[in-house]
Amino acid sequence: MLIFGIDGCRPDALQAADTPALDSLAATGAYSFTAQACRETKSGPSWTSVLTGVWPDKHGVTNNSLEGEHFSEFPHFFSRLKSVSPEAFTASFVHWAPIHDKIVRSADRSNKYASDVEVAAESVFLLQSACPDVIFLHFDEVDKAGHRNGYGPTIIPYLTAISVVDTLISRVLRAVQSRPSYDKEDWLFIATTDHGGSSHFEPGSQKARHGDNIPEHRTVFLILSGGRVLPGEISPAPTSIDIPPTALSHLGIGVSGDWGWEGHAVGLT
To answer: Which of 98, 175, 178, 86 is closest to 138 using CA atoms?
Structure first.
């Protein structure tokens, strides 16, 4: 399984950008461009929700410092996977360092990188040299472009950044498809984002922002392809905390009530 996390990628901008790799996944898979992130639309609480399967009222993260976290009680979903299948091979390669430094648990391979290109390259290397069960990749350049230029479907530098990440995702997908054992493997591809952002700069600021409980910040996308995916639009609209139970369902693992998860598997038969 591969989970592609594209930081700060508005769904309407994704649909407007030149993204053949992601378009192909959506065309053959399940998708939602009206999925919902948590109310606290900053990277810390938003990625923590994606990776732990619970909202900030449980995982405790409300800002990018990740102070107040409850990871001993609500850990990264890799920990839940390992508790059931200790032999599962997990990997996390990220551009935004706090994911590696503070959120990741129970990863056989985990590292942070200075660029999206390095994130993709490390993933390609792993796919060529090992047999991972779950890889989480985090790309950060789209969010940086949004802060510099504004987030939205008409902002060319922002759309260009999305297209560049799509080429990296294409490179990773080719590495999967080139595996000698690919025909015997059952891959699920998940693509999502943590939050959107505003198209305008705040008064007196040189940057566009996110972090509010408004549609432009909170509406995200979810794309699933491969595995037991039921093609078509996911309805009702999913949420960020549906990703861990969807991932574990693909791996044949049920969600324990003791985990406190409130999401559920989506887009699968």
So the answer is: 98
